[in-house]
Structures are given as C-alpha cells and as structure tokens.
C-alpha cells in the first residue's frame, strides 16, 4: 500500500519553500486579491523568514503559502473571484493565528512591499 504524504508542512518544506513561485503568483494576482490580502501574504512571507518565528509556526505559514501557490485547490483559481475564496479563507485564518509574531518591522516591510507591487501593477 502506498503511503500518501500529508498536506501539512514539515521542517523540510520550510527549508525548501520556493520563494520565486510564491512571489510570481502574488505579482500575477495582486490586483485581483486586493491590497489588504497582498499585505497579509507579504507579512506571512516575512514572518516565515524571521528568526523570531518558531519552527512550528513557520510550518503553518508554509502550509498556507503552499496552498496559495498550489494549482490544486478546493475551488480552482481560474473561476475568477470565487476561485480565490478558499485561498483567502486559509490566508485570513493563518494570518490571524500568526499575528503574535507580527512585529512593527515585519508590518512595515509588508506595507512597503505591497505598495511597490501595487504601484508596479498600475
């Protein structure tokens, strides 16, 4: 019997997270997602990179970011606004749980990255 890999992220997933794939998809859909969601995604991304975020929390963050990047969703992204509803729910839930690791520096970096991206998209 074949063993199926869990969808939960582990330490190896944290180490192997594909920054470029995440940043590419974020840039591609930034206008559709809207500024608040983009800022939350950047905040999660910067929390993932932070030395102050515990590994267990990083695993949760990677799980959410991988779900966002993954072409396999409960609701496919190609369905327009409805396509991101499941992604948005996961992002919002994880962001709320991880807010305790959201420092002023990470908040500022996320706001700055969001402003730069949104400016580029216009």
UniProtKB/TrEMBL annotation:
<keyword id="KW-0812">Transmembrane</keyword>
<dbReference type="InterPro" id="IPR010652">
    <property type="entry name" value="DUF1232"/>
</dbReference>
<protein>
    <submittedName>
        <fullName>DUF1232 domain-containing protein</fullName>
    </submittedName>
</protein>
<dbReference type="Pfam" id="PF06803">
    <property type="entry name" value="DUF1232"/>
</dbReference>
<keyword id="KW-0472">Membrane</keyword>
<feature type="domain" description="DUF1232">
    <location>
        <begin position="58"/>
        <end position="92"/>
    </location>
</feature>
<keyword id="KW-1133">Transmembrane helix</keyword>
<dbReference type="InterPro" id="IPR016983">
    <property type="entry name" value="UCP031804"/>
</dbReference>
């Amino acid at each position: 019997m074949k063993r199926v890999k869990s969808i939960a992220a582990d330490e190896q997933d944290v180490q192997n997270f594909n920054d470029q794939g995440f940043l590419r998809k974020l840039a591609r859909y930034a206008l559709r997602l809207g500024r608040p969601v983009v800022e939350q995604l950047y905040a999660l991304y910067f929390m993932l990179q932070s030395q102050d975020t515990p590994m267990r929390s990083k695993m949760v963050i990677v799980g959410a970011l991988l779900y966002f990047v993954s072409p396999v969703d409960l609701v496919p992204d190609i369905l327009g606004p409805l396509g991101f509803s499941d992604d948005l729910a996961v992002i919002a839930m994880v962001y709320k749980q991880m807010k305790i690791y959201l420092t002023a520096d990470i908040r500022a970096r996320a706001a700055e990255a969001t402003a730069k991206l949104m400016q580029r998209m216009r």
